[in-house]
Design goal:
Blueprint lengths: L2 E3 L6 H9 L6 E3 L28 E3 L2 E2 L10 H5 L4 E2 L2 H11 L3 E4 L8 H11 L5 E5 L8 H9 L2 E9 L3 H6 L7 H14 L2 E8 L8 H11 L4 E6 L7 H8 L26 H15 L2 H7 L6 H17 L12
Parallel strand pairs: 1-2, 3-6, 6-7, 7-8, 8-9, 9-10
Antiparallel strand pairs: 4-5
Helix pairs in contact: 3-4, 4-5, 8-10
């Protein structure tokens, strides 16, 4: 057995060769890949792709890292302080080699450099794709950016809005998120026929008592197609972790990174850990009931609306299962 540390391009070929020749070393340490140009393309020709269903989604990475410094996020400790991106021609060539028409950009922030994202989206237009990505909410206010995204085939965008409380967002260092602009942004996404999902985090010290009720009301009123609810988890190395550790508010430091999202590893200021877990699970169950889905979702007649219905069904199954929601083996 061997452990590879760092980005795989620098060590994966060596690890494979050593494994094939029975000389694996215990540890392989990669140098940081500064230049993302010329990365090797996945060998899709080695797969029997027909076995993977009629509608295949291919994962492609156009960048690494994130330009923001949210106080709870460990992104920079894994991928470095600088935001890096691949040449547009390399990304387009990889997409062509998939032979597919549905692409998921597996980037932490697809548009960390706006000019690069615009150039890439312009290059996607002739390919006639449907694609999905994650980016920051402020980009949805940029009409030029959204126009190009729509023309290039944007199917779904995942957005980390985190909270509907501006004080909580300020505490998270989410400076680009403006609560008073959320409604107009969501109206515009719906007008464009773009499916979207929103990420929320609960457990901040600044949260008010009615945060769960208010969040559900916001989601229903704005007919949000998909939402994910998470409990604040202070990953090691982040300012949040250092503060929580200093204050003695970590409950299970050893296992904290193992099941983030639905398990409370901290002592919240305003509720008990058990109540926080219960309230977040209640949000999941309430949001993904049949009446809620029927009220929020448009008829499944377009690709975007079908995508929203598919995700809602899968999330409903998880929310109402007796299996712990951190266990994805049964889904």
């Amino acid at each position: 057995d061997a452990v590879g540390i760092g980005e795989a391009e620098d060590i994966w070929e060596e690890m494979l060769e050593d494994a094939a020749n029975g000389r694996l070393k215990p540890i392989y340490r990669a140098r940081r890949v500064e230049d993302l140009s010329g990365l090797p393309f996945p060998r899709y020709d080695l797969l029997e792709l027909r076995r993977y269903g009629l509608f295949k989604t291919f994962s492609v990475q156009s960048s690494r890292g994130c330009p923001f410094k949210c106080y709870f996020c460990s992104e920079r400790f894994y991928l470095g302080q600088a935001y890096r991106y691949r040449p547009v021609e390399d990304v387009v060539e990889e997409i062509k080699r998939t032979g597919g028409k549905i692409i998921l950009f597996a980037d932490s922030n697809f548009a960390g450099k706006r000019a690069h994202a615009l150039e890439l989206m312009e290059a996607l237009i002739p390919l006639r794709l449907r694609w999905s990505a994650l980016w920051s909410v402020d980009l949805c206010r940029n009409r030029e950016f959204m126009d190009v995204a729509q023309r290039s085939g944007l199917l779904h965008v995942n957005i980390g809005i985190e909270s509907i409380d501006q004080d909580t967002l300020s505490g998270m260092n989410k400076r680009t998120n403006k609560v008073d602009q959320y409604r107009d942004i969501l109206v515009d996404l719906r007008r464009r026929g773009i499916s979207y999902s929103l990420n929320f985090i609960f457990g901040a010290d600044t949260e008010k008592e009615d945060v769960f009720r208010a969040t559900m009301a916001f989601l229903q009123e704005n007919k949000v197609p998909v939402a994910y609810f998470n409990i604040l988890t202070p990953h090691r190395g982040t300012p949040l972790y250092d503060r929580m550790k200093q204050d003695g508010r970590l409950l299970d430091d050893y296992n904290m990174g193992r099941w983030p999202g639905m398990t409370c590893y901290i002592k919240p200021r305003n509720v008990s850990p058990e109540e926080l877990e219960c309230r977040v699970k209640e949000l999941y169950k309430g949001f993904y009931t049949f009446p809620s889905m029927l009220a929020r979702l448009p008829p499944p007649v377009t690709q975007a609306s079908i995508a929203s219905w598919v995700v809602n069904w899968s999330q409903r199954r998880m929310a109402h299962s007796h299996t712990p929601m951190e266990n994805f083996d049964d889904y």
